[in-house]
């Protein structure tokens, strides 16, 4: 009887040890993600954020094509980080202002079409995830939802680079379902 009890205690201890290690890994991952966000908040805006804010300003009636193409030139000549710029655009896409969202989508499209580096960052910085959230949000203006859908569809048809991503596959299936 005591051997049976010892086996149960030992098995329970082993489950606790495995569970504790898993909790530790999850906590470390969560803290790492959180520390990145805190660092981002404390650092304030960088050059890329400033460029994105200017190109997607609430006061603009239409996209400033000259500014958008200047930003592309800066990316292509490595005067600004494509990673930071795409992160800045991503931040603007999730804002509540319909105008800012639209201008951010237009800047994203311009950068993706004109900057190979920026296009590869779209997948790496999980911009598609934010675009899907924008599409799914019932508060999103129809024009912005359609623009996001058209971008995702066009990118998927133009390159194999995004097709391997699960978020693209899921989004593309939703597009097909919605259009039926």
Topology diagram in text:
Layout: H1 2-43, H2 47-55, H3 65-76, H4 82-93, H5 98-114, H6 116-124, H7 127-136, H8 142-158, H9 166-179
Structural overview:
The chain has 180 residues and is mainly alpha-helical. The chain contains 9 helices and no strands. The chain has helices at 2-43, 47-55, 65-76, 82-93, 98-114, 116-124, 127-136, 142-158, 166-179. α3 packs across α5 and α4 runs antiparallel to α5 (98-114). The protein is elongated. It starts with a helix and ends with a helix. The mean pLDDT is 79.
The gyration radius over C-alpha positions equals: 22 Å
* Count of extended strands: 0
Count of individual helical segments: 9
Strand content: under 5%
Largest sheet: none
Distance between the termini: 65 Å
Offer a few descriptive terms.
single chain, 180 residues, 0% strand, elongated
Short description:
The protein has 180 residues and is mainly alpha-helical. It has helices at 2-43, 47-55, 65-76, 82-93, 98-114, 116-124, 127-136, 142-158, 166-179. The model has no long low-confidence stretch (mean pLDDT 79).
């Amino acid at each position: 009887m005591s051997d049976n009890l010892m086996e149960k205690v030992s098995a329970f201890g082993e489950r606790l040890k495995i569970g504790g290690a898993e909790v530790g890994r999850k906590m470390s991952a969560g803290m790492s993600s959180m520390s990145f966000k805190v660092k981002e908040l404390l650092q304030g805006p960088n050059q890329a954020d400033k460029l994105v804010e200017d190109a997607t300003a609430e006061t603009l009636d239409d996209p400033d094509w000259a500014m958008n193409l200047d930003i592309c030139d800066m990316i292509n000549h490595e005067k600004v980080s494509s990673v930071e710029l795409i992160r800045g655009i991503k931040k603007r896409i999730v804002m509540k202002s319909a105008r800012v969202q639209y201008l951010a989508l237009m800047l994203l499209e311009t950068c993706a079409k004109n900057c190979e580096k920026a296009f590869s960052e779209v997948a790496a910085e999980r911009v598609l995830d934010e675009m899907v959230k924008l599409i799914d949000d019932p508060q999103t203006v129809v024009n912005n939802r359609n623009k996001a859908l058209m971008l995702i569809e066009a990118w998927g048809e133009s390159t194999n680079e995004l097709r391997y991503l699960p978020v693209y596959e899921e989004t593309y299936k939703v597009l097909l379902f919605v259009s039926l």
